[in-house]
Amino acid sequence: MLQWFRRRAEANRRAQELYGSVVTAARQPFFYKDMGVPDTPEGRFELVSLHLFLALESLNQQRSAELDLTQRTIEAFVTDMDDCMREMGVGDLAVPKKVKRAAAAFYERAGAYRRGLSAPEKPDLEGSLETYVFSANPGNGAGVAALAAYIRKAASKLSAKPFDERVAGGGLVELLVNNEVEVP
Question: What is the pTM of this model?
Answer without folding.
Answer: 0.86
